[in-house]
Amino acid sequence: MRASHVAAAFVVGLSFGCLRAWEPTGPYRCESDGACPDGLTCDDGLCCRPGGSPACPTLAVEGRCASGQAPRRFYTDGDGDGVGAGAPRLFCSLPRASGVVPELLDGGRVVLDCDDSDAGLAVNPFAPEQCNGVDDNCNGEVDEGLSNLRPWFRDRDGDGFGDDTDRQTACAPPPGYVARGGDCDVMAADVFPGAPESCNNRDDNCNGQPDDAPFADAESPGVPGAPTVDCMQNLGACSQGGIECRFDAGARANQRVCVPRSQPRTETCNGVDDDCDAVVDDSPGCGGPPSLTSTPRVVTGAVRTIIPMATGPRLPPGCQKGRAGADAQSWFNPTWVGSQGWSMSTIPVRHTWFAEAEGTTTWDLSRTTRLSLALTDRTGLTIVGRPIFSDAIPGPIVTLCGPTDAVYRRFTPRMNQLGEGQSLRVTLSITPTPTAGWDFEESPGFSLAEVRRVELTVVPNQQPDGGAFDVRTFTVTVLPDAGFLP
Known about the structure:
Layout lengths: L13 E2 L2 E2 L21 E3 L2 E3 L23 E5 L8 E7 L8 E3 L2 E2 L2 E2 L39 E5 L8 E8 L6 E2 L62 E8 L4 E8 L37 E8 L21 E2 L1 E3 L2 E5 L10 E8 L12 E10 L17 E5 L6 E6 L9 E7 L8 E5 L10 E6 L5 E2 L2 E2 L3 E6 L4 E3 L1
């Protein structure tokens, strides 16, 4: 037993012959934590002994109160409007500290509060109905009997638009209801009439059309005010790009695809990634192909040109591939095969091998200094010393062709560089200062920044035989290290 509780005589106060509730003071008041002396329990703030003395004021023991009467039913009154709710609780008298009210009956029917949670709402079966979208009188109807009634729609996702299939009629919005319906996805807060449309295979704006422009997260060409989203990086000239909404056949769905606004261009030596391959100033666009036979996007082949005697022994100006009368010859990468085909009315036939940029593109050789020639002859490339051909130029002649065949730079060896059965390995300077032993000529308008093709021209060997010439063939292998060097 606690020392603070001293045994005292228990006196039941009687007033006018009735049991009077205890005063919450005196030696039998419960501690703040509800503790009582041994054998006693706390009932409505007072320490008592259930079924004994001192008797408990509200508790019933074995269904009977200390007065001998049956206990009464009470209900919790959470909002303090005098009408209880929830499950009934049995007490012998009204507790002071439990927040309950006595049971109310209306014609034998228990009257309960339909909203016992908010003290600010006068909601109970006795309250008058008001224009507030609430069932004030707990009869299951909202704003009944009032004017200015209109439909309201349940807004489950909080986007301001409700479910057309879940509505109530009231003169003010019921809790959770809004004035506008038409929500086509009642559980998605970003889907409602007029919502921004995104590329997500969903009808965001509830117009019956999924993924229709304008988009909030993709480009919408031709739509004023449509957003532009940059998506490409580190791609030089194509670094600016936009996201488009495109159908993917494999995924069978629309997807956001990053598309460049600028198409790749021919790579040039300008410090910009023109061809958008994430490499700045790469070959063959800048610097030319490092290998004339094995670099991607380089086209190779061979032609022969039969030049009339009246033209003279020297190689005519310009490039040879597109010259009138040039016909294709055998080229089996990396082997070049040609035949003489000489007659008395023609100068010895010129054979030209070429390597050119694919399509209409060109190479920018403005930062390139050297062209490596690597050829191996198997037979037939020595010019005989007959007087009629004494002015003929030995080979190979190297020509850099511009955008047209009339624009060129040519390098001519002063002595024959490649004879029968020999190999040629020479690094030729392509700057205006020619390599020793080579002559240099250039047409007006030529630019190293626009080189479309490199040509190698040779003259096959001719052997005199009784005043005539044999028709000879030759075979040359172009080695992989024939190409442009930085």
